[in-house]
């Protein structure tokens, strides 16, 4: 086993370890690059006020993206997250007007999210539908409709103290919503890297048929990720409703696209089985920073979508190039050692 | 003695193809049964029906004398059937240890529900490494995803997994097809050890030498039907080959 | 005058015949909901008229409204009152007119299209001008302001911005005018960013209601006192009215959707029954401020 | 080979052949069911006028879905089709105001579509991006922005005669756009079932790495499907612009979701390699009929999204159930024969 | 005689794993070269480098005495290298004929560019059927997708494909691993026929009997290095096995 052992020992050598670390950190490096560029372009960018804004603005996408990540890890897709957010916010507002208790409202919003998620997961699994695209597209439509119907199409003003705090409170310049994101991220990191259930999520994404054959409860795992994604939408609804002190059937429009984009831009695989919470967070921050930057730099409204498109591709592309350069570097490095 | 596993009148059809046609099969504890047949004879299909991957269109399965339903792989596994599939059913995105323990991870604490327990990753890596070393498969980077590994390395992982968790019946579909000389030898030894420990073993193989060496009995399928059973001995070799190939060729 | 018109028709011989008319609005937001509710109320008093309702998916959903128009023609309506998403609808509306169906445009006009029987609308451009003039009086010359645009490509929303800018005067500079799609969250985000980049702005003008409510949250979270920054919205939605009453939003341009709805449907019915109708009915705009807000709530 | 030959002969027997046919026709059956239900619910539905409307309203989704199908067959996704449609329509309108020639305008619209498609395809392939989601999301944003910028955000009235005819002309109650869809469908049927290139499209979708190893020009095949999808968006732009006699930067909003939904609801695999033009057409018609039905039945605007969601799931689910019943029937049938 | 194919100093590294370490290899027209080695020795990696799937980190490839670059599978194929990969590289969603002709479909008319030509599906089905019958692989439904076929049926399709389009060099990575007795026999005959026709053939196999029967020369890899070459004869068998397994075990 000398060759292998040797190779392993070489893996310990510093430049190589650094290179491997850099690969893992790839998207983070690009994110840092983005930050550097932005702070050079706009003096307002690196102010605490603005950093707080970026975090608060990215919080909703980040939470949704973490939920979406779990779904995508199992080779799925959840198109309903934006509508679920809207429905949860409206439910919260209606509950608040009936029973003005903070915890009850929070529970109602979380439960709404999980209920939509359960419909997605169970509809997909028990209905033996060919792809989750179908059921989550249906709930994308139906949850929004329900939110409109429940609210009579009207935004509902007023949210309990605790929801407002989660949405717009802050410790210094650090918004509370950033802590909330951190807590959600931590919990999901724990799930995906340390817990049996998380291992099963990766197994189902890597080989669904194989997972079935190894007696992993595939159906329950699949249902669970949609419920968790719905829960994430409920949490995101709390943040949004708190930021705007309202529940509205128009909240979360196109959030499904944002959340999927965050996961994919952040470097997780759209095809399942590969990726982690870090990818979702990085992707959400990238999107948040790009949008924030457009506004800070007063980019013309017509040109904004063009610039956003170009920057997204450039960010991902620079990570691709970085990866290639690095693997070339590793070969040279290893050949020398 | 009651057979560990008995299959009666197994019939399975895929669209227009009759893959199994009234197959009977028994295997006893401490016995190695070789399942032989040409390509497309129905061997893998029979195995998948026993392991709960496919459902039989007709026929029944008994274990220890009692009728059972292996409606899903999970049910079959719970009944004590451990299988290595021909296509291996590995998780290409996970490392060998994760593949090894997929579905029965070492985790704790015990008072938590299964899914919420924390993985004991170091324990799993260690045991996996030891077992693979026993099979003499050198795996350069034990933390690489198995999707990147060589054909033989992959097969060794799948075989070691089934052997490690063997309970009543162990089924191996062409377990040495991709293995080198030394690794094949180890797998044959493994099978013999399983027999000694009282497991019932079903092995699919095209390698007559291996079959003659390890099998107590050979059942031959041809186009979905069982056409005969025989004790595989060097003397019987030609007879078995004729059974496999059939009179009409 | 319009009420008497209907009763006259009720007495005419053709009126015994029940009539089917369509009422199509852009998409479900409170502005159009108010309009639809007004039509439903009106309809209760006019059982001889069957009103079919239709709605698109967004403020720019030309295809959706086209499909609605086509379905209504298939169901044999005699007149359509519609809040057209854009001038692009004139083609399909002309088809309706050619088939003998009267068309009344509500909320906004399709300029240059001769097929319409009447336009019952607020002039968005005029509303914008009203806001611009109002703002010009309240911000000092030399100060800077920001504009939260609506949805790019939506003519009536664009008019509100164009009109405002035309009367604002040269003394005031617009430093930023991002699009918000009339979305509350996007309004909040944009306002936060603008306040970070241009902390000294004197006012924010919104082409629709929700972004201004979002901006209000941004102003609050930036630690500014209400009134330190002049917020002016458009539509005078319930949320805005509440904020105006509380002194947090300075003003909003009010239109009268209920009036538009009931007059619109009435005009459509009258046109279908062969009566002559006014070519343009302006339902008017008004600046809502803390002083007169009580009258709007 | 008696067993196999026997089995083959049995395949020829009538009930089995019918059953197999029914499987192929599955989604078509569900479509017919939908038609029957609709015509029972609304007397206006089966009028020629309304059928013409349904065809005209479905034409745009159908053309986009056919393009999207090709992309999905290669395991890809094209999120940009709606924005491409808008950009092509604006380009057409601007070209028309500069050079009022029908053919020139048509060519300009088609070329615009293909150009965006080429950017998608080449960006994805040559940029070695991990997934087409990224580049087509970028062009979703950028093409819309460009359309806004070019048009100054204003709809541009006026289209040449030929475009108007394609969009709103009809032969009796049959709209010309239906013939256009038929022509596009026929061409793509030819491509996918008869031509070498089409075979390669399926090969790339079935096993991209395998396709590379068998010397199929994978990169060119992948680029081509995005170009064709862009071309389809250009054709769809002609229909939309003709229908509304205008070019506008707001056309085709959310058309990407509609087109993907049509493909998947129609029964093609979201995971690539399986499906055909028929699936795209059936899916587009289903969506068209459901929307038309909502309007005919005066379903409350708030409830429409709910009903649409529920009907979509029910349609797909009934096909799943039908498939299962049928395979059970086939087993019984075959066992008897 | 100039070798049909010569590899010099082939080196390939995957991350920390050195899969090939300065391997030299030549094979002549009309010769069958067996490439032997334990699991994970680097056989498949070497083959993939020759066929253009991987790029060599260092080393060179010559064909007919001239240096060539097999930068992509298409380039390798154009140079006359035909390969059966260990993982078969089949299209699970297509039928056997479509798999068979993937990338070189029979189509016309000739004046059209390749991609636009119309498929001659009947011709392709007929030829595929004939070739598979020659290998004695019974395929029940020739229009079913190969994803549904048995392991041996799939392998037979892949092998028949390479053999049918053989040009200068034919490379077969464990071509009989999943095949039955009769089918294996046919494939061995096929290899001998390829040799007679003057093709250079490289075969990877773990079956020593097969190697001894058909190979003119055997090259042995161990952990990425070539450790020897030998003429495989029954007498040499033990020596070759020792080379494969290595002194240190
Ligand atoms: N899921 C399936 N759908 C349709 N046909 C199938 C399916 N699985 C197997 N078959 C067919 O059933 C027959 C038996 O296949 P099976 O895999 O059992 O053969 P086998 O004896 O294992 O052959 P091998 O030695 O090649 O592995 C073959 O003709 C095969 O094509
Ligand atoms: N793409 C890859 N990425 C990383 N490691 C790889 C890759 N391909 C092969 N390896 C490693 O390179 C080594 C050689 O693998 P290779 O497939 O060449 O072995 P082999 O001789 O063909 O073995 P077998 O007989 O099992 O097929 C193994 O350790 C394997 O894990
Ligand atoms: Mg098999
Ligand atoms: Mg190999």
UniProtKB/TrEMBL annotation, chains A, D:
Keywords: Cell membrane, Membrane, Transmembrane, Transmembrane helix. It comes from the Bacteria. It is found in: Cell membrane. GO terms for cellular component: plasma membrane. GO terms for molecular function: transmembrane transporter activity. This is Monosaccharide ABC transporter membrane protein (CUT2 family). It is a multi-pass membrane protein. Its main location: membrane. It holds the Pfam family BPD_transp_2. The chain crosses the membrane at residues 21-42, 54-72, 79-99, 105-126, 133-152, 172-191, 221-240, 260-287. It comes from Nonomuraea polychroma. PANTHER family: ABC TRANSPORTER PERMEASE PROTEIN YPHD-RELATED-RELATED, RIBOSE IMPORT PERMEASE PROTEIN RBSC.
Automatic annotation (TrEMBL), chains B, E:
Residues 5-248 form the ABC transporter domain. Keywords: ATP-binding, Nucleotide-binding. The keyword Plastid does not apply. SMART domains: AAA. Signal peptide: none annotated. InterPro entries: AAA+_ATPase, ABC_carbohydrate_import_ATPase, ABC_transporter-like_ATP-bd, ABC_transporter-like_CS, P-loop_NTPase. The keyword Transferase does not apply. GO terms for molecular function: ATP binding; ATP hydrolysis activity. Coiled coil: none annotated. This is Monosaccharide ABC transporter ATP-binding protein (CUT2 family). It comes from Nonomuraea polychroma.
């Amino acid at each position: 086993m000398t060759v292998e052992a040797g190779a392993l020992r070489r893996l310990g050598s510093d430049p190589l370890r650094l290179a491997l670390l850099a690969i893992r950190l790839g998207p983070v490096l690009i994110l840092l690059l983005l930050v550097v560029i932005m702070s050079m372009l706009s003096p307002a960018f690196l102010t605490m006020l603005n950093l707080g804004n970026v975090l608060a603005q990215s919080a909703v996408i980040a939470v949704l993206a973490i939920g979406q990540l779990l779904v995508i890890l199992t080779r799925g897709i959840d198109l309903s997250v934006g509508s679920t957010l809207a429905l949860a916010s409206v439910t919260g507002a209606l509950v608040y007007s009936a029973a003005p208790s903070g915890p009850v409202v929070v529970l109602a919003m979380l439960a709404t999210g999980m209920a939509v998620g359960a419909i997605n997961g169970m509809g997909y699994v028990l209905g033996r539908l060919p792809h989750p695209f179908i059921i989550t597209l249906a709930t994308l439509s139906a949850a929004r409709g329900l939110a409109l119907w429940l609210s009579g199409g009207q935004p509902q003003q007023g949210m309990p103290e605790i929801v407002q705090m989660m949405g717009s409170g802050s410790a210094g310049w650090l918004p509370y919503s950033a802590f909330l994101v951190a807590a959600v991220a931590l919990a999901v990191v724990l799930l995906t890297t340390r817990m049996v259930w998380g291992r099963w999520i990766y197994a189902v994404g890597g080989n669904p048929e194989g997972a079935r054959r190894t007696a992993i409860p595939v159906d329950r795992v699949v249902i669970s990720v949609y419920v968790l994604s719905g829960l994430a939408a409920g949490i995101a609804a709390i943040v949004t409703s708190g930021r705007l002190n309202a529940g509205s059937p128009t909240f979360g429009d196109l959030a499904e696209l944002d959340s999927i984009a965050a996961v994919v831009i952040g470097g997780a695989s759209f095809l399942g089985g590969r990726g982690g919470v870090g990818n979702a967070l990085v992707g959400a921050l990238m999107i948040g920073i790009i949008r924030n930057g457009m506004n800070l730099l007063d980019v013309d409204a017509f040109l904004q979508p063009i610039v956003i498109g170009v920057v997204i591709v450039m960010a991902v592309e620079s990570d691709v190039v970085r990866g290639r350069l690095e693997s070339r570097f590793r070969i040279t490095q290893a050949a020398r050692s | 003695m009651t057979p560990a596993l008995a299959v009666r009148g197994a019939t399975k059809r895929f669209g227009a193809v009759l893959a199994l046609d009234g197959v009977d099969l028994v295997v006893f504890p401490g016995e190695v049964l070789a399942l032989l047949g040409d390509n497309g004879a129905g061997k893998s299909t029979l195995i998948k029906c026993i392991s709960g991957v496919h459902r039989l269109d007709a026929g029944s399965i008994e274990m220890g004398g009692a009728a059972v339903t292996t409606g899903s792989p999970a049910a079959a596994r719970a009944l004590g059937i451990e299988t290595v599939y021909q296509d291996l059913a590995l998780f290409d995105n996970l490392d060998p240890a994760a593949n090894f323990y997929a579905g029965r991870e070492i985790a704790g604490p015990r008072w938590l529900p299964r899914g919420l327990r924390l993985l004991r990753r170091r324990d799993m890596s260690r045991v996996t490494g030891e077992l693979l070393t026993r099979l003499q498969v050198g795996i350069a980077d034990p933390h690489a995803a198995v999707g990147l590994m060589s054909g033989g390395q992959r097969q060794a992982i799948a075989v070691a997994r089934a052997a490690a968790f063997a309970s009543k019946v162990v089924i191996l579909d062409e377990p040495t097809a991709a293995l080198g000389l030394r690794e094949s030898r180890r797998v044959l030894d493994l099978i013999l050890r399983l027999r000694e420990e009282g497991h019932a073993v079903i092995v699919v193989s095209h390698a007559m030498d291996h079959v003659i060496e390890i099998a107590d009995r050979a059942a031959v399928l041809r186009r979905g039907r069982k056409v005969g059973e025989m004790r595989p001995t060097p003397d019987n070799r030609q007879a078995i080959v004729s059974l496999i190939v059939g009179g009409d060729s | 005058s319009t009420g008497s018109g209907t009763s006259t028709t009720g007495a005419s011989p053709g009126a015994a015949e029940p009539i089917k008319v369509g009422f199509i609005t852009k998409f479900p937001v409170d502005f159009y909901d108010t309009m639809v509710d007004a039509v439903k109320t009106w309809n209760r008093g006019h059982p001889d008229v069957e009103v079919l309702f239709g709605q698109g998916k967004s403020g720019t959903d030309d295809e959706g409204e086209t499909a609605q128009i086509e379905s209504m023609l298939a169901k044999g309506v005699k007149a359509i009152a519609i809040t057209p998403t854009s001038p692009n609808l004139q083609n399909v509306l002309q088809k309706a007119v050619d088939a003998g169906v009267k068309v009344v445009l509500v909320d906004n006009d399709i300029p240059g299209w001769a097929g319409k029987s009447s336009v019952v609308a607020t002039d968005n451009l005029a509303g914008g001008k009203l806001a611009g003039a109002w703002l010009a009086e309240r911000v000092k010359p030399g100060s800077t302001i920001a504009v939260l645009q609506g949805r790019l490509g939506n003519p009536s929303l664009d008019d509100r911005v164009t009109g405002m800018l035309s009367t604002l005067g040269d003394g005031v500079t617009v430093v930023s005018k991002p699009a918000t799609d009339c979305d509350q969250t996007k309004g909040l985000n944009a306002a936060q960013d603008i306040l970070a980049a241009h902390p000294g702005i004197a006012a924010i003008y919104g082409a629709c209601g929700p972004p201004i409510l979002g901006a209000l949250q941004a102003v609050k979270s930036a630690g500014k006192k209400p009134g330190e920054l002049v917020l002016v919205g458009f539509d005078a939605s319930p949320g805005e009215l509440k904020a105006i009453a509380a002194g947090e939003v300075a003003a909003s341009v009010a239109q009268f959707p209920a009036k538009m709805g009931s007059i619109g449907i009435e005009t459509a019915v009258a046109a279908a029954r062969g009566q002559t109708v006014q070519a343009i009915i302006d339902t008017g705009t008004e600046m809502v401020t803390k002083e007169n807000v009580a009258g709007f709530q």
